[in-house]
């Protein structure tokens, strides 16, 4: 699949996953795509943990309330470090957003579905901290996102999007 097709086919998938393991090679390919994303001043603030061991996966998914991605055969946890890059500016959010989008597109290109779960785990209840503790994430890293990876049981509905003309212009607003 070419990149433009992957971009246009990508959907946030919140349904059930088929009970098929994701080969490590595919997880590695998806993670490499994420780590190839641009990084502000090349600070490379993003780190990743793929969870495909059934017992570890069960432990990670069990702390998410309300539950999400319970049937996913793998998840990729996105970690961020807040590193000052330039003139007291930190680009960690931009770094991990670019990495996540690259991984979502790579997953689609390989025939998998996923969803960007961030607010759900970083909210006031700090589910992300519970997951980080389970995975032995060291101090200085923040778990900012969880990406389930697997083959979708069902087709993800196409979201209603505003028209191109409502959101894009040439030369001036």
Secondary structure topology:
Elements: H1 3-9, H2 24-35, E1 46-51, H3 54-62, E2 74-80, E3 84-86, E4 89-90, H4 92-109, H5 119-122, H6 127-135, E5 142-149, H7 164-167
Antiparallel strand pairs: 1-2, 2-5, 3-4
Helix pairs in contact: 1-4, 2-4, 3-6
Short description:
The chain is α+β, with helices and mostly antiparallel strands and 173 residues long.
Protein architecture, described:
The chain starts with a helix and ends in a 6-residue tail after the last helix. A hairpin with a 2-residue loop joins β3 and β4. The radius of gyration is 17 Å and the shape is globular. The protein has 173 residues and is α+β, with helices and mostly antiparallel strands. The longest helix is centred in the middle third of the chain and has 18 residues. It has a three-stranded antiparallel beta sheet, sandwiched between helices. The mean pLDDT is 96. The chain has a single domain, classed as 3-Layer(aba) Sandwich (NADH Oxidase).
């Amino acid at each position: 699949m070419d990149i433009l097709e992957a971009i246009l086919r990508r959907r946030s998938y919140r349904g059930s996953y088929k009970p098929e393991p994701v080969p490590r090679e595919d997880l590695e390919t998806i993670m490499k795509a994420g780590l190839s994303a641009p990084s502000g001043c090349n600070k490379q603030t993003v780190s990743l943990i793929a969870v495909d061991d059934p017992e570890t996966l069960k432990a990670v998914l069990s702390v998410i309330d309300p539950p999400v991605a319970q049937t996913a055969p793998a998840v990729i946890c996105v970690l961020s470090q807040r590193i000052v890059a330039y003139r007291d500016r930190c680009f960690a959010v931009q770094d991990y957003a670019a990495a996540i989008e690259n991984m979502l597109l790579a997953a689609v290109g390989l025939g998998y579905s996923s969803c960007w779960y961030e607010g759900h785990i970083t909210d006031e209840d700090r589910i992300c901290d519970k997951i980080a503790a389970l995975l032995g994430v060291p101090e200085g890293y923040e778990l900012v996102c969880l990406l389930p990876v697997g083959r979708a049981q069902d087709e993800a509905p196409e979201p209603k999007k505003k028209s191109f003309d409502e959101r894009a212009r040439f030369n001036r607003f």
